């Protein structure tokens, strides 16, 4: 790699003298005659051209008597292919003679850049450090201690009642836990419209004035139940449930999209739906399709999540769940496997299920209690509706009961087409024939048949699934696993 160097006249003369020496070796030289426009160039001795200092010994072809022989071509070719890096002497020489006529301009520019950077840092003020602390020179411990003493931390209280609301002399009754109740006013930074009854507020420690409204305290476990992303399931992905889809849309979609129709008639829209049926018939799948269709907040709760170890924890979670739902513009709460907490009440003499019954009573109170439910729709799914408590099933709490039965021939054919939509299958597959060979099967069974047919194609090392693969899968899944099916057991119970 060539390095540019412009030196004084002494360096030029030295380079010229070395050029005479290099001519004796047969190595190329450079012309360092100064010109008006182009400054002389200095090269490293390890490149294809010579350098200002040449310390190597004469080549083997030179003679002691001053006569020269022809240069060795192998020696020159080796130097051109394998150039050596600059040594310490070359680096010292470069530093000695500087960077030529541009060195002054470069140093001046570098100095201006440093001054500009320093000026910018001064204007920025306190800089961010790796530890997150400012420089010790900027610490003011006395002022910080004084500020902490003057501005003490606020206390958390709850506003239980507002006296003389909508007036200038409004007062607020707050309840500070483990202390007492006080009648207080508002701070300078709080507006009367920001405070409501039952709200958590922050009060100072001197006069107990309300300084800031606080958001409702909700368990993080309850917050995590909210489905942030919409599911990718639509109504077209639910096969064999045409009547069930229409009933669900009447209860969920119609009141949210067209509430004026119910206002004109003077009736309240249904607010709760119970989906029941054998396992694998599409109850949870339809709930996911409802979440995809509506823009409302969708909260999915599994019944076993509300069964807690400590007394009152399950009821508290149900209460906070509906409290969080009321803060939304529109919300859908889906209780999956609700029979885990909604079983019929009985006295076993031991009291082991008392906590589950407390959770169910709180759920009943939230469905149709003293406080209005608001624009909250409740969906519940279960496989055993006969085990649910009658108080949970009464109208006003769960207005619709939608049964998800076994799909008929048309429904099974549609389910086959839905599950094979993304599969690489042959064109002439008779799905109606496959549906006839799968009587009394659910959508989950048909999906298992499609998966098993794909496994047969993989075992045969084929890229497409044939009709024979589906027939073999029907014999294996439907007939082989029939003794493990829960459908006959469900039909006996219901």
Automatic annotation (TrEMBL):
Residues 39-86 are annotated as: Disordered. Signal peptide: none annotated. GO terms for cellular component: cytoplasm; nucleus; proteasome complex. PROSITE patterns: AAA (PS00674). Belongs to the AAA ATPase family. Residues 39-54 have a biased composition (Polar residues). SUPFAM superfamilies: P-loop containing nucleoside triphosphate hydrolases (SSF52540). InterPro entries: 26S_Proteasome_ATPase, AAA+_ATPase, AAA_lid_3, ATPase_AAA_core, ATPase_AAA_CS, NA-bd_OB-fold, OB_PRS7, P-loop_NTPase. One of its GO terms (molecular function) is ATP hydrolysis activity. It holds the Pfam family OB_PRS7. This is AAA+ ATPase domain-containing protein. The 26S proteasome is involved in the ATP-dependent degradation of ubiquitinated proteins. The regulatory (or ATPase) complex confers ATP dependency and substrate specificity to the 26S complex. Its main location: cytoplasm. Keywords: ATP-binding, Cytoplasm, Nucleotide-binding, Nucleus, Proteasome. It is found in: Cytoplasm; Nucleus. Residues 269-408 form the AAA+ ATPase domain. It comes from Eragrostis curvula (weeping love grass).
């Amino acid at each position: 790699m060539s390095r540019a160097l412009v030196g004084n006249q002494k360096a030029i003369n030295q380079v010229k003298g070395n050029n005479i020496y290099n001519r004796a070796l047969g190595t190329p030289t450079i012309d360092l005659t100064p010109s008006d426009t182009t400054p002389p160039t200095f090269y490293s001795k390890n490149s294809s051209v010579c350098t200002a200092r040449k310390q190597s010994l004469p080549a083997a072809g030179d003679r002691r008597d001053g006569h020269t022989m022809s240069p060795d071509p192998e020696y020159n070719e080796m130097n051109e292919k394998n150039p050596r890096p600059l040594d310490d002497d070359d680096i010292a020489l470069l530093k000695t003679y500087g960077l030529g006529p541009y060195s002054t301009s470069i140093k001046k520019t570098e100095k201006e850049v440093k001054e500009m950077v320093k000026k910018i840092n001064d204007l920025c003020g306190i800089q961010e450090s790796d530890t997150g602390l400012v420089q010790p020179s900027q610490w003011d411990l006395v002022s910080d201690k004084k500020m902490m003493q003057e501005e003490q931390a606020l206390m958390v209280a709850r506003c239980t009642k507002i006296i003389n609301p909508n007036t200038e002399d409004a007062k607020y009754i707050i309840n500070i836990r483990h202390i007492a109740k006080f009648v207080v006013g508002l701070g300078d930074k709080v507006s009367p419209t920001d405070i409501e009854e039952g709200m958590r507020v922050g009060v100072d420690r001197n006069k107990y004035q309300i300084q800031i409204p606080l958001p409702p305290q909700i368990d993080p476990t309850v917050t995590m139940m909210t489905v942030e992303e919409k599911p990718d399931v639509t109504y077209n992905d639910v096969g064999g449930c045409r009547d069930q889809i229409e009933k669900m849309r009447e209860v969920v979609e119609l009141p949210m999209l067209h509430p004026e129709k119910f206002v004109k008639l003077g009736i309240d829209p249904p607010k709760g739906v119970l989906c029941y049926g054998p396992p694998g018939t599409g109850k949870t799948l339809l709930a996911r399709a409802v979440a995809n269709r509506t823009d409302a907040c969708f909260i999915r709760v599994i019944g076993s999540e509300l069964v807690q170890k400590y007394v009152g924890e399950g009821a508290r979670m149900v209460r906070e769940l509906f409290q969080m739902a009321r803060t939304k513009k529109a919300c859908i709460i889906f209780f999956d496997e609700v029979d885990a907490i909604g079983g019929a009440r009985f006295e076993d003499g031991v009291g082991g299920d008392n906590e589950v019954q407390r959770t169910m009573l709180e759920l009943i109170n939230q469905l149709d209690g003293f406080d209005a439910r608001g624009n909250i729709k409740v969906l519940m799914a279960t496989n055993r509706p006969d085990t649910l408590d009658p108080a949970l099933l009464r109208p006003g709490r769960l207005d619709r009961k939608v049964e998800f039965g076994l799909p008929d021939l048309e429904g099974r054919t549609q389910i086959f087409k839905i599950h094979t939509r993304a599969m690489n299958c042959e064109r002439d597959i008779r799905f109606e024939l496959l549906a006839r060979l799968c009587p009394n099967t659910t959508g989950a069974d048909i999906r298992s048949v499609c998966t098993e047919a794909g496994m047969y194609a993989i075992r045969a090392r084929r890229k497409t699934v044939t009709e024979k693969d589906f027939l073999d899968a029907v014999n294996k899944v439907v007939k082989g696993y029939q003794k493990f099916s829960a459908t006959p057991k469900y039909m006996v119970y219901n």
